[in-house]
Amino acid sequence: MISVEEALDKVLGYVDVLGVEERPILDCLGQVLAEDIYSGINIPPRDNSAMDGYAVRSEDSKGASGQTPRFLRVIDTLAAGDIPGCRLEEDTAIRIMTGAPVPEGADSIVRFEDTDEALRAGSTDEIGILKEVEAGSDIRRSGEDVRRGAKVLSRGLVIRPPEVGVLASLGCSTVKVIRRPEVAILATGDELVDVSEPLPAGRIYNSNSYSLAALVRRYGGIPKMLGIARDSEDSVVASLRNILEADMLITSGGVSLGDYDVVKDVLVKQGEIAFWTVRMKPGKPLAFGMINVVGSTGAVEKIPHLGLPGNPVSVMVTFELFVRPAILKMMGKQNLTKPSVQAVIRDSVVNDDGRRIYVRVVVEERDGQYFASLTGPQGSGILSSMSLANGLAIVPEDRPGVSAGDTVKVLMLDWERE
Question: In angstroms, how far apart are the furthest CA atoms of the chain?
Fold first, then answer.
């Protein structure tokens, strides 16, 4: 039995960053940029108005106030996207909308609210300026956001909504990114029934495949559900014929010591096994290695295989600890760790077999301090306890337990700051 850290190191040591693909920018959310992005344009492309108002020469507003307006002749109106057709001369103004290009001769914008426009009842031939403005007032300068030729986004950056917007502002419709891993998911067990079928006596629905597919998708991968394999090597091997082009295989069940736990045996025969069993609870029976797959060219390829336990809580906990970091590394991401907090635990937890325990908890913040409460019974088959939890409190393997009031480390499962 190896430690959690040893197991994770082995998993990460077997997976590599995937190749590059070019995709539409809206499809790249959460992916890692695979190229530096340089701007071919200035943003904004030319000086433009930051407000609705009047383009003026600042010297023509000198001394203007509510008591002593400066009256200017209005010679044109500009909307965003218009091209100015005339030059601003002394004692003239051009009515201008936000985003419209600043006309030649103007050096400032007077906002509507600093004019007497509201008092003129539709007359636009003349405007009274009620406030003196400085040169440059409310003008957005060409290139003040992005200069032509500047590096705007760097390779290795995770694409978020702001980056999508920046790419669109540069006229980029597609971009090169590290591709998403395709993860094959196979559940094993004679007792399993798909959720679309009636439930016979003595059977249970296959929740694990759906939990795993949701987790794969949440962390950026592409799930490929293979269905259910029965508790025989032939059935498992037959199901594995469908993992062509997958970057990783996840199975649930079949890795314990029972007579019908055959997944680890298949892993040994079809590839290599790096470890089996981890010093943790839940999730002790966990097999990892490389499995041989015949590729489309006929060549034998190896893909990483994580054989997770069969109990639904164990499946989700081991995914968070081992599969999630592997998926993130394959996507080229650098931060592979879950957010964590130090919290005061409100319940006692006994550790009587020297394994690291991951306890399902609800974490709340009060007056700058975090508090963690158990979600109820902690059996590895109680999936509803995961639904109630937003964190996993850690009881170290070298401690006999924790008491109510102790401070513990909590890995946050759902976290606004993640």
Answer: 97
pLDDT in tens, 395-411: 999 999 999 999 999 99
Mean pLDDT of the chain: 92
Q: Write out the residue range of the structural domain in which residue 75 sits.
A: 48-140
CATH number of residue 370's parent domain? 2.40.340.10
**Are 270 and 237 within 8 A, CB to CB?**
yes
**Residues 247 and 382 both lie in one domain:** no
- Look at residue 257 and tell me if it is in a domain: yes
Q: Say whether both 133 and 152 belong to one domain.
A: no
Q: How far is CA 113 from CA 49, 66, 119, 130, 375, in A?
A: 15, 11, 11, 9, 57
Q: Tell me the per-residue pLDDT of 73-99, one tens digit each, with 9 for 90 and over.
A: 999 999 999 999 899 999 999 999 999
Which residues, at least 6 apart from 209, have a Cβ–Cβ distance to it below 8 Å?
A: 185, 186, 187, 225, 227, 228, 252
- Specify whether the CB–CB gap between 192 and 206 falls below 8 A: yes
pTM of the predicted protein model: 0.88
- Which letter, b or e, does each residue of 297-331 get, where b requires 16 or more Cβ atoms within 10 Å of its Cβ? eeeeeebbbbbbbbbbbbbbbbbbbbbbbbbbbbb
Q: Are residues 405 and 354 in the same domain?
A: yes
- Separation between Cα atoms, residue 185 and residue 205, nearest integer Å: 16
**Per residue in 1-42, pLDDT tens?**
899 999 999 999 999 999 999 999 999 999 999 999 999 999
For residue 85, what are its two tokens? 């057709």
Question: Which is nearest to 207 in space by CA: 192, 219, 197, 191?
Answer: 192
- Residue 324 and residue 344 share a domain: no
